[in-house]
Amino acid sequence: MSKLQVITGGTSGMGLATARAVAKYGPVFIGGRNEKKLASALDELQSQGIDAHGCRLDVSDIESVREFAEQAKQVAPIGNVVHAAAVDMDVADTETITKINVIGTVNVVETFFPLLEEGGSVANYSSVTGYNYEPNQKEIEIWSDPNSASFGTVFIDNLQPLGPAAAFLPESAPAYFASKNFVMFYTKANVERFGKKGCRIFSVAPGSFMTPMLEHQEANFESIKEGTAFKRFGDPDEMAALFAALLDPSVAYLTGCDVLMDGGKLAMRTVPQLP
User: Fold this and answer.
1) Low-confidence spans in the chain with pLDDT less than 70
2) CA-to-CA distance for 75 and 30, rounded, in angstroms?
3) Of the candidates 206, 199, 196, the residue with the CA atom closest to the CA atom of residue 258
4) Residue 4's closest CA among 82, 98, 85?
């Protein structure tokens, strides 16, 4: 029996592209907060011959995640989970970023871990921005207890400022940067228990990809592209193809890491480039 490929945030952008790419492994089950976008995405996938299913999902609400998982497992045994649901700092405040990007990631991983079939994987979307935030020892202690009832509050209360260089960024930038570093940290913290079950967990960090999340930064398009080796944005299908490749059973030894796909952005910013 084919195993189910679950994609949170699968109604648009890289999430939807990933749903198309991983359909080769089995039926797909997508979720998103906007019901109209969900219906449209399902129509698109089904019109392409993909066995697609889905229901509304708010990853920040644990009951919504549990209902989503309950609906998913009725379709087929759970094979892979790609967690793409997130919000950006330009459209969300600190509390919303924490609820969706941070607590939402914990909700998805904790809910689907016991449902994963042996050989399955959880693949989390992180971000190149996560590499620009280094948690201090106090934060690491907090992040190591993500199931604490006060986790969201103490996560916010202990955020570090980003410094003068980030003065032009939104007020919620520290939360966004930290949230993406947390995704990497939390992914690595789950390696051993996933391995005992014969499962994998890893994250993938996109750079600047042309998605609905990026469209509101039109005024900065040229400078963003100039910060990459190829002077262009990434295409969501490129990211989707990477996820599909990393989920392939032929690379089953890959776990507990973050895979960076940013067009050279981080390298160009952190290492002197040769002429």
Assistant:
1) 210-220
2) 12
3) 206
4) 82
